[in-house]
Amino acid sequence: MGIYVYICFLSALSILLGFFTHKISDKVQSTIAITAAAMVGSLLLLLLGSLGWFSLDSVAKEVMEQVDFKSFLLNGILGFLLFAGSLGIKLPVLKDQKWEITIFALFSTLSSTFFIGAMIYAISHLIGLPVDFIYCVLFGALISPTDPIAVLAIIKNLRAPKRLSMQVEGESLFNDGVGLVIFITVFAVAFGGQEATFSGIMGLFLHEAIGGILFGFVLGFIAHILISNTDDGSMEILLTLTIPTAGFMFANNILHVSGALAMVVSGIMIGNWTRHSGFSEQSQRYLDHFWEMIDHFLNSLLFFLIGFALLLIDFNIYGTVLMIAAIPICLVARYASLWIPFKVLQQFRTYNPYTLKIMTWGGLRGGLALAMALSIPAKTAFVNGIDVKDLILVMTYSVVMFSILVQGSTVEPAIRKSKVVDPNREEYLQPTNNQH
Length: 436
Prior knowledge:
Oligomer: single chain
CATH class: Mainly Alpha
Distance between the termini: 32 Å
Number of domains: 1
Number of strands: 2
Shape: globular
CATH architecture: Up-down Bundle
Order of helices and strands: HHHHHHHHHHHHHHHHHEEHH
Strand content: under 5%
Low-confidence stretches: 426-436
CATH topology: Na+/H+ antiporter like fold
Mean pLDDT: 85
Largest sheet: 2 strands, antiparallel
């Protein structure tokens, strides 16, 4: 069977799984329930396979390898998910939080990358596994950015105070693009033969980041002109599809700039500018509903695949130690990288007292980190006979699952408390049509 057949069956399974988990308990976020159920299913398949009762574990693993999680997300549905998420970003609130989002997306992501890299480097040498520093930094680069897909799927539904919600959502959208650029830059040094010079690294970084932002403006402007010149409601909605399809591919494969940042910028433009001055009244009503359905469908499939990605991981004793160590290291790095700029920003404005706690605990990792880990070439770098990719993948999976299942399911009490003590209670974020 071909890849299309697999995607069709997996999509149906993810939707049915979401339906049944919602029927069992509507108090648990659907993305968390789908991920947990899929992970339990993959564990069950592995257990039955090890007992020799069925060979479904090998079949399921073959399906996951055929789907190619990395290409499916990084070169496929990521554009749709980022564009859909950025449509709901309100520009006035974004402007109010521009300095916080910029600093958190740049400084916090970069500092967290090197903090995690240094800690993993130290621990790996401590246990007798001398992993090169560049590979440790590579892991730091892929795990430091919070995943906007996971964050938007869970945090938005909890109706956090407006400013706090925008800090979490805006940062996750932008540090996703920044994180991808950092990862690509470090990856080029580790595997692409790029010399580790300041000018070379900065040139690559700026080309990806600035190029992606500029292309996003161009893409959004062209889409705005086209949408403004038709009164056909269906055509107006269809024109938005050209952005995460051809636009995303053109950025990544032709211009070689950050398609992720381009999607965020163009989505904000369409959601704030074109929404009010380009769409007909009918399309304004259907824009959010249309993209909500796409977002919900792709999220269900993505989190289903995250749970079953367990089948792609090879465990070993060294990997298990690093897997256990990676979770607290990533949490400490997240807190420290936010605490420093947060203390500086506190001198200029008042924040909700739960801001730092929620941004740390609510800074979820998800499919994006897994996709980047899976993009690392196998059997290229070894340490003590162990493939570096396997080490990075097992650490990534442990952090992602802890993030979604534990952090995602326990962040709600802190958000509820933040609404009680919020200094801007009249500015509570109201649900939008783009929420799940």
